[in-house]
Amino acid sequence: MENSKNSSSSMEKVNFRTKILSRHLNQENPTSNYSILQSFPCLSYNPPEFSEPSSIFDTKEMRKLMDGHNLQERDWLFGLMLQSNLFNPKIRGGKVFVQPDYNQSKEQQREITMRRIGYLLQNGVFESWLTGKGPEDELMKLALLDVVGIFDHSLAIKIGVHFFLWGGAIKFFGTQRHHDKWLRDTENYVVKGCFAMTELGHGSNVRGIETVTTYDSSTGEFVINTPCESAQKYWIGGAANHATHTVVFSQLHIDGKNQGVHAFIAQIRDANGNICPNIRIADCGHKIGLNGVDNGRIWFDNVRVPRENLLNSVADVSPDGKYLTAIKDPDQRFAAFMAPLTSGRVTIAVSATYSAKIGLATALRYSLTRRAFSVTPNGPEVLILDYPSHQRRLLPLLSKTYAMSFACNYLKKIYVKRTPEMNKVIHVISSAFKATASWHNMRTLQECREACGGQGLKTENRVGQLKGEFDVQSTFEGDNNVLMQQVSKALLGEYVTAKRSKKPFKGLGLEHMNKSRPVVPSQLTSSAMRQAQFQNDIFCLRERDLLECFAAEVSLCQSQGKSKEYAFTLNYQLAEDLGRAFSDRAVLHTFLEAEASVTSGPLKNILGLVRSMYALVTVDEDVAFLRYGYLSTDNAAMVRKEVAKLCSELRPHALSLVSSFGIPDAFLGPIAFNWVEANVWSSEQN
After folding, report:
1. pLDDT tens-digit profile of 344-384?
2. Active-site residue identified among 138, 210, 477, 642
3. Which member of 46, 203, 277, 470 has the greatest number of CB atoms within 10 A?
4. What are the binding residues?
5. Which residues form the Acyl-CoA oxidase C-terminal domain (predicted)?
6. 341-667 classified as CATH 3.30.70.1050
7. DSSP label at 382?
8. Check: CATH 2.40.110.10 for 193-323?
9. 477 is catalytic
């Protein structure tokens, strides 16, 4: 009986398949009795502007606050790039998008990067970048570099090496003779510069570089030499293909005595692109990102340069070979010499923050139109941003990106108005913010990539590709962990000085150390946690306590006969926690300053929500608050619940908050808009 049923069922399947195949071969339409596919309504794209609540605050005013300066110049440059086919415009979903073509070889990417620079040069983008005077010109230069970086990190780095590193070295390490000879030609790309500091054997430890320069008084020339393979200059942007000149960092030996690291101008190619005698150059090869930058390696085989090519703002050598400097202490001389290099950390912190904005604008817009699953039987699918778990993934990162924007604006402001007395402050703050912003960017891009699902893997949607492009920021211009240790050492120096002199703390935001120790309420409430006073208190408490602990541990090690440097090494964990505590507190203070500058009620209200999210998610995620006892476990649980509550309150404002970034649609990925239309069959045929 069972066999009979199985046989009957098999015959029915055979007959069914035969009829289907017959209709297919005869191109017949299926009858209603043999309908293969049931009709369902297809998914369609619904712009979030039509479905999301209207903004309760002015997004244009928020953009002014976020960008901080030169909005008109930024928009001009966005428009300039959209006008040229050099920026690779593509139509997806009825919209034009511009982004580099990463399918190109590294050679092609390098070539198109130089062509784009030529276009920008021709249109006056770089006017006054080195010959301008005053903070206004510097801020405009930084604003335009922000815009370039939003399009392509390779293009921004290539320009940054030429203007900020090579050009900055000439301007700040050099004197009038160098300015007159090199700055205008650099601004006009008559010379193409690079910056040869990093070596195969030394990166962050600049004082340990092995390139050696001696002086030949008989000819009035310096002789630059690469004495061993570990001394080859490495990762030098621009060196592999395009640079004609470089600033070489080298140990200067005079009369057998090493006077420390100095900088020299050396020509490495002639006007026709031929490598100069006694110079050897090799390519660093393909990278995980930034393949539009021609990173190279350089060897100097007793290369002779005129005495005048020493950049001599800190020290000089007379024609007869005498070493001349007003700063006799080698440590102070090195500090003065390195002080101007903060521009790299400033621009990295800012570009990392804009990269995070691209990721969040793309992922959040996508999550406002993409649906998945239903929460009721036969109910509609739910927008993925309406899931609390998705809100928790993205909205805290959005708040941190707002916080970093205000921090970067503050950093730029003190940088362009710098004085010699501010060098230490700028060094410490730029080190902290560079590390914090670049770490935040990488975490944000990874979360945004995952939040976009498979679409996050597509290069044209930008988020995944940006991870490879920006990964380098964690280690160039100073390894982040090393920078954070430098921050902690500087804080310890301030602490020791204040205690020994019995004078109040002053500078680096440490004035809170002069007040009584903050007290955290034994039982936190929602209203208390949202108060700026509580947020400031708990951030200051963490920084204060960690600084005191760090000082005590270092002092204990020294009392046991260990050196100060060894004591730092042993207490690296405290140093790392302290560096983060300083950075988080400093960022919060810049947020509070930005908030205080606002008069509009609606703008102030939303900023209060975003700031509370930034502060509380920092408390929730950093185990230091529990580890060192600043929070009880009950209060930590309350903070966690408050973060979830803030997510739901910020959810209606997600679109307005990312729209306030002011990034034109064309500079985001197609999935930020009509991702259905962007993937239709006809788009493949075109």
Report:
1. 999 999 999 999 999 999 999 999 999 999 988 888 899 99
2. 477
3. 470
4. 198, 237
5. 545-669
6. no
7. E
8. yes
9. yes
